[in-house]
């Protein structure tokens, strides 16, 4: 191989890795934000503490991942974007998170459903990434997988409590799962970026994460006495979804709220 | 029927423990009035922790940097934790958390009036940390030596975290005060709004305070409202100078003679109005609490139902 080919191969690799890391960072950032909206709104004080805990873990993951995505990007473009530049100064269509994490906290069951499906996905993802050929990503994932194991337990516990609890709670839990379920297909959809990082041993190809996720989620649903929702995946325009920057309508409001103050004071330090 | 002779002996032993600065523990005999006073005070304190989550929680989703956002989420989480410790301390006196929350929701128990003021700018998150957590620490450090053991021990844990909160609030204001003109104005405007309400946090002047004397005799309260207020002013004046911000009190002046800062008189009419329920956010704060509680009712019920079913299944299997 000539040096030039080597260079372009590694540039392609870095481009995919930067895009991949940004996707993971956006997932964690938005998931954290939705939980943070619930501060002082939990059904009991213990939940205020637990939801804040999970939100903080996810925010910590987001900060590491966005900072790393920014530095990978800088290698390619020579321009550095910090975690705050990436969180506060991108528009909606530049966010690459899956749509599942955007879904609003319609009631506590919706929060639990979203967290169950997402943390079960993150658990498989970070487990795989802990063995990434990229040391930084492996380090972030190795720490995060322990946190996410707790998030997954927490959501599983509530899924079972609500599914098994009362008639009302079981109905609400089933409705919430049905609303979130169509967005799970996106978690396991591959594309060129995913295939590239998987091929170079840096990242995971989403379809590979699905079997273990299925087993885990089915196990929780069975314990909760809930049926696996029979609803088709949401299809985006021309097959596009969150990874391509096409989000739910609710997401624009989330960003407007999150970014407003930062953007009102251009260049200010906080 | 209780033997009056025994009660007298109990009372003598209790008085001796108080005089000897010993800790009263849940299993010890205590006068009913002591128990009632503690329940009222600990409940009010616990309610303040959880109502206090609202004004600051108001800025979590708009925090201007991810670092500040993380610190603020952690702070609001700490306050929920403080609420939990304090409701547990009250439980040792024989009242459950549910009962106390009902009293709060019915407006029959108070929380600190400071939380009836709105947080309208990001700088308010800084001002609350610096001034409100600062005043709370001034109030609470002496409570670490309170005669009732569980309350004193809860305060030790809480005070450690409150001093983090105060430093973080100071740091927010410090950064704003050295930022753009707009940020600096935001910081000063916020301190101008929070200074007087924070002085009111120590309660009415000693001449008008109703509960102080007995609480002092029981070693629940160690210093008078006015003494604590003076301590607080003496602490924040040099801190304001370090921030490069001014305090909106024309009477503020070092008195060499007293060895303390002289300061002005808060608007006690405003204090009474807010206490009576007519502050800017009284209704909103309670309504928010009630709504969260009511919306969570089906969740708590489900958890109880599931626990009961699990126990029944275990029994059936055994
Ligand atoms: Fe607190
Ligand atoms: Fe605090």
From TrEMBL, chain B:
The keyword Ribonucleoprotein does not apply. It is an enzyme of class 1 (oxidoreductase). Keywords: Oxidoreductase. Its EC number is 1.14.13.149. GO terms for molecular function: phenylacetyl-CoA 1,2-epoxidase activity. It holds the Pfam family PaaA_PaaC. PANTHER family: 1,2-PHENYLACETYL-COA EPOXIDASE, SUBUNIT A, PHENYLACETIC ACID DEGRADATION PROTEIN PAA. This is 1,2-phenylacetyl-CoA epoxidase subunit A. It comes from Nocardiopsis endophytica. The lineage of its organism: Bacteria, Bacillati, Actinomycetota, Actinomycetes, Streptosporangiales. The gene is paaA.
């Amino acid at each position: 191989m000539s040096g030039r080919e080597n260079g372009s191969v590694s540039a392609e690799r870095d481009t995919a890795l930067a895009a991949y890391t940004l996707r993971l960072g956006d997932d964690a950032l938005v998931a954290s934000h939705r939980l943070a909206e619930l501060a002082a709104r939990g059904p009991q004080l213990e939940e205020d503490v637990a939801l804040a805990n999970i939100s903080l873990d996810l925010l910590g993951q987001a900060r590491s991942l966005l900072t790393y995505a920014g530095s990978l990007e800088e290698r390619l473009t020579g321009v550095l974007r910090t975690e705050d530049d990436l969180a506060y100064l991108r528009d909606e269509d530049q966010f690459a998170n899956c749509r599942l994490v955007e879904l609003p906290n319609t009631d506590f069951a919706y929060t639990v459903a979203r967290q169950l499906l997402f943390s079960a996905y993150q658990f498989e993802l970070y487990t795989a990434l802990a063995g990434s050929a990229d040391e930084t990503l492996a380090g972030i994932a190795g720490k995060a997988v322990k946190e996410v194991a707790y998030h997954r337990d927490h959501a599983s516990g509530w899924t079972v409590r609500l599914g098994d609890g009362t008639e009302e709670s079981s109905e609400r839990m089933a409705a919430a799962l049905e609303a979130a379920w169509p967005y799970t297909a996106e978690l396991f959809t591959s594309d060129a970026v995913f295939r590239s990082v998987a091929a170079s041993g840096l990242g995971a190809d989403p379809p590979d994460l699905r079997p273990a996720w299925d087993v885990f989620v089915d196990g929780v649903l069975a314990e909760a006495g809930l049926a696996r929702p029979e609803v088709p995946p949401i299809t985006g325009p021309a097959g596009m979804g969150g990874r391509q920057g096409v989000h739910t309508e609710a997401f624009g409001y989330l960003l407007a709220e999150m970014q407003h103050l930062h953007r009102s004071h251009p260049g200010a330090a906080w | 029927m209780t033997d009056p002779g025994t009660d007298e002996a109990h009372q003598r032993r209790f008085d001796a423990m108080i005089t000897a600065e010993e800790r009263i523990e849940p299993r010890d005999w205590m006068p009913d009035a002591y128990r009632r006073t503690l329940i009222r005070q600990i409940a009010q304190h616990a309610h303040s922790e959880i109502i206090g989550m609202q004004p600051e929680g108001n800025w979590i989703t708009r925090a201007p940097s991810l670092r500040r956002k993380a610190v603020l989420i952690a702070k609001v989480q700490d306050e929920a934790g403080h609420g939990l410790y304090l409701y547990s301390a009250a439980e040792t006196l024989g009242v459950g958390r549910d009962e106390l929350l009902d009293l709060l929701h019915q407006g029959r128990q108070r929380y600190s009036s400071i939380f009836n003021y709105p947080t309208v700018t990001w700088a308010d998150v800084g001002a609350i940390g610096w001034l409100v957590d600062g005043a709370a620490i001034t109030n609470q450090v002496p409570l670490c030596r309170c005669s009732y053991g569980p309350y004193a021990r809860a305060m030790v844990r809480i005070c450690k975290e409150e001093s983090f909160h105060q430093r973080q609030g100071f740091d927010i204001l410090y950064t704003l005060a050295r930022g753009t003109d707009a940020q600096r104005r935001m910081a000063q405007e916020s301190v101008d709004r929070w200074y007087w309400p924070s002085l009111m946090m120590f309660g009415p002047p000693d001449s008008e305070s109703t509960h102080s004397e007995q609480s002092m005799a029981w070693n629940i309260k160690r210093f008078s409202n006015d003494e604590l207020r003076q301590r607080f002013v003496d602490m924040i004046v040099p801190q304001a100078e370090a921030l490069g911000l001014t305090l909106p009190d024309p009477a503020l002046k070092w008195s060499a003679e007293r060895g303390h800062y002289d300061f002005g008189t808060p608007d006690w009419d405003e204090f009474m109005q807010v206490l009576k329920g007519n502050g800017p956010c009284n209704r909103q704060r309670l309504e928010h609490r009630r709504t969260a509680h009511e919306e969570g009712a089906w969740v708590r019920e489900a958890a109880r139902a599931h626990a009961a079913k699990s126990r029944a299944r275990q029994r059936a299997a055994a």
